[in-house]
Amino acid sequence: MRITALAGGVGGARFLRGLLAAAPDATVTVIGNIGDDMTMHGLRICPDLDTVMYTLGGGIHEEQGWGRTEETFGVADELKAYGVGPDWFTLGDKDIATHLVRTQMLGAGYPLSEVTEALCTRWELPVRLLPSTDERVETHVVVDDAEAPGGRRAVHFQEYWVRMHAPDAHAIVSVGVENAKPAPGVLEAIAEADVIVLPPSNPVVSIGTILDIPGIRRAVADAAAPVVGLSPIVGGGPVRGMADKVLAAVGVEVSAAAVAEHYGADLLDGWLVDAEADAGAVARVQAAGIACRAVPLMMSSPQATQAMAQAALDLAAELAATKAAAAKTATGSAS
Questions:
Q1: Of 106, 16, 14, residue with least CA distance to 64
Q2: Are 152 and 144 in contact (CB under 8 A)?
Q3: What is the DSSP letter of 92?
Q4: pTM of the predicted model over 0.90
Q5: What is the C-alpha to C-alpha distance for residues 150 and 309, in angstroms, rounded to an integer?
Q6: Where would I find the beta strands (DSSP E) of the chain?
Q7: Pairing of strands 138-144, 152-156
Q8: 115-130 per-position pLDDT tens digit
Q9: Which label site among 147, 235, 262, 312 has the fewest CB atoms less than 10 Å from its CB?
């Protein structure tokens, strides 16, 4: 079985571990979000790609869900002693090594997709990890600022999330997206998949940014494989992160059903909502033309995460079987 997953950072990476446990013999391709990428201290940083890489490679700080395990911060301490900022985004020493290699390779002319492949070789990943594009696309968020012209300004997503702790947002802007194109292998991974999964990552600034790359949303919508997503909203709020703030910024209700409607029936074939908190949303999602099931959606343990992934695969198999039966019936009627 060939599975293609679109994934953001911590939630997506943790879900992928469950997916690999549920389908150990599958060939898995992960299309990663690059909208969080930024340059700091002259280094190119790709937080979501690195979180997937460290998580699946066994080097993640488990309690945080990001950064390296057993990390040290000697460089950060020296930068602070020199009075060199910013001080709101701390890079660990091991993590800096990753960014140094990436920056050197990019400077030598290698595209991000080849750089990512080289980095993943060191971690012996059980998946193929692809950036959604080789071009530079960065997510910016429009926030209130009394000192800015018009009372608002746009800040990089990392500043919005890490330094500002996600205040109310007025708009989300993908800078550079109009000139981007899918990275090599992305469209092929979508077209050749047997199942396409949208993990419970942020639907606006993670999966949404991936889908905004010209050509990717259309490829997913046109794919022969069933597309199944898992709600990142449980009981009217995000399990983790600031999805409520960015959903509000794009005019979407913060609910499991509304996120499914936001993706749309042209994209989604199936959707999973939390059995305890959102079972009442099933009818609304199905009325929107999307098959929906209520299952436990809290990644409280490896076993629970594996069960979530298995539920997504089971729904995909059900949808594929229904589609095959309908095609057979149509062929029989035509003959």
A1: 14
A2: yes
A3: P
A4: yes
A5: 46
A6: 2-7, 27-32, 38-40, 43-45, 128-131, 138-144, 152-156, 171-175, 195-198, 227-230, 233-234, 237-238, 270-274, 291-295
A7: antiparallel
A8: 999 999 999 999 999 9
A9: 147
